[in-house]
Amino acid sequence: MTLKEREENQKMTSYSHDETLDVVKIPVESLQVEYNFIKPEDYHLLEPIFAAFNASVPSPTISRIATASFNNEIIGFYCLQLLPHAEPMWIKPEWKGSKIWIRLAAMVDTARQNKKTFIVAENEESKRMCMAMGLKRVEFPVFVKED
To answer: What is the total count of domains within the chain?
Structure first.
């Protein structure tokens, strides 16, 4: 199918339904969807959506949120945000096993002020420490993009 034929087909089809995902797909190319970064003073508009997932709207000072809007209604967003990430921890080799990590962990735990905090346990020792501190292992994949 050529690009022109595809465009004509989309104009004739208002939407398609994917039963495997139970989602209605609307060809956005034919609609006036607006894409913008939301202004810090408008972050409150996202509160009902975040509340439905028992989450907090990110701080505008450490995030940017790209939005898609249709008829002045936000229909999608994607956040880039800084989240507390506790690591690395270093202890001089001759002090390993001395349990000073417990006091260090308690200090960092207090500093996080009850905010969700992530730790990447890159080895078995770190994994044991996280478990000892009462962290919950997440059950979803974590991805990284470095370039």
So the answer is: 2
Closest CA to 118 of 132, 130, 101: 130
Per the domain annotation, does 7 fall within a domain?
Answer: no
What is the side-by-side order of every strand in the sheet holding 63-70? Answer: 34-37, 63-70, 73-81
3-class SS string, 39-53 = CHHHHHHHHHHHHHC
Q: Give me the domain span that covers residue 36.
A: 16-81
Phi, psi (deg, nearest 5) at residue 35: -120, 125
pLDDT digits (tens, 9 = 90+) for 84-136: 889 888 889 999 889 899 999 999 999 988 888 899 988 898 899 999 999 99
Q: How many CB atoms lie within 10 A of CB 38?
A: 20
